[in-house]
Amino acid sequence: MRNRAALRQLAGLVGVDVRYTDALGETREVPDDTLLALIGAFGLPSDPVHAQTQLEEQQNEMPLELAPALSSGPAGLKMGMSVPAELQ
Q1: Domain map (residue ranges) of the chain
Q2: Most exposed among 1, 2, 26, 47, judged by the fewest C-beta atoms under 10 Å?
């Protein structure tokens, strides 16, 4: 069984809400399978611990000058990106 707390934390790091309000105004929890599918769409492993490790490694590999501009979420996750040479 997966650790729901770790899965929720990982979803938050990639900007995925773990609950929503339906058309009738009821607050619903997003099922684990849906969270895993959305996290997988970011190219991350399905295991929350491995996915968080991968995100941290990507963050550590990012050039320092890009880090402040690419932070998001409460944990300040920084996603790497590259700029084509012709745009630099």
Answers
A1: 4-87
A2: 1
